[in-house]
Amino acid sequence: MDPVKAQQLAAELEVEMMADMYNRMTGACHRKCVPPHYKEAELSKGEAVCLDRCVAKYLDVHERMGRKLTELSVQDEELMKKMQQGNMPQ
Amino acid sequence: MSQKLNFLEGKCPVTSGVKGTQHFRKRTSYQQKNMLRDFLLVYNKMTEICFSRCASNLNYRTLTIDEDVCLNNCAGKLIRSNHCLMGAYVKLMPSIVQRRQTEYENKTQELMQLAGENVLPVHENVTSE
């Protein structure tokens, strides 16, 4: 696959996945910060602060997961290379 | 990108070394796009699951050390469980697909036979006139 097409594909999917992440984040933060006791329509200060922190944490987690995934995938690739090298002399 | 795609097909200590875990290297761009989409969906799901289970302390904007440790363990467990799940699926699915295919073929044969039987009486009526 040529690199230009690959980049295009990656950009398309990136947008889609950002939207997906946003939806999951709003769901998760709503579940964590806004208890289902709907006595009034306004958000309390605690809830607002919680939502702010929740978003910051979620994005931090998202970044760390990405790093961890690439770290483990690099480890995986190295392991497979070593195994192939181990098989070669035979 | 190919690195990330290959990562989905890692080794599980229980299911590895089975015939079904062979990979096909040649892929169309459509298949590659779908694989990348699957990878990114797994990534998003992992983030959601680990966040909901590990981020317990919403008194601070940054992640505490306990949460950090929890996230590392969560990531490792989810990735390895994904490997094992895929290994088991690849081992079991071909037989199920084969069975369904033979059932489908038998069913279509039956239906064709029935259709053939229904056609014949009409012709007989025509010729008798």
What's the level 1 CATH class of chain B?
Mainly Alpha
Distance between the termini of chain B: 73 Å
The level of helicity of chain B is: over 70%
Unreliably modeled segments of chain A: none
- Class by SSE composition of chain A: mainly alpha
The general outline of chain A is elongated
What is the overall pLDDT average of chain B? 82
- The CA-CA distance between the termini of chain A, in Å, is 33 Å
- Give the DSSP E fraction of chain B (strand runs of 2 or more residues): under 5%
* Average pLDDT of chain A: 89
As for the number of domains of chain B, it is: 1
Structural class by secondary-structure content of chain B: mainly alpha
Q: Supply the number of helical segments of chain B.
A: 3
The helix-strand sequence of chain B is HHH
Beta strand % of chain A: under 5%
Describe the overall structure.
The complex is a heterodimer of chains A (90) and B (129). With 90 residues, chain A is mostly helical. Chain A has helices spanning 3-33, 45-87. The longest helix of chain A is centred in the last third of the chain and has 43 residues, at 45-87. The mean pLDDT of chain A is 89. The model of chain B has no long low-confidence stretch (mean pLDDT 82). Chain B has one domain (2-112): Mitochondrial import inner membrane translocase subunit tim13 like domains (Helix Hairpins), CATH 1.10.287. Chain B is mainly α. The N and C termini of chain B lie far apart (73 Å). The A-B interface holds A 1, 5-6, 9-10, 13, 16-17, 20-21, 24-25, 27-28, 31-33, 50, 52-54, 56-58, 60-62, 64-66, 68-70, 72-74, 76-77 and B 1, 3-4, 6-7, 10, 29, 32-33, 36-37, 40-41, 43-48, 50-52, 54-55, 58-63, 71-72, 75-76, 79.
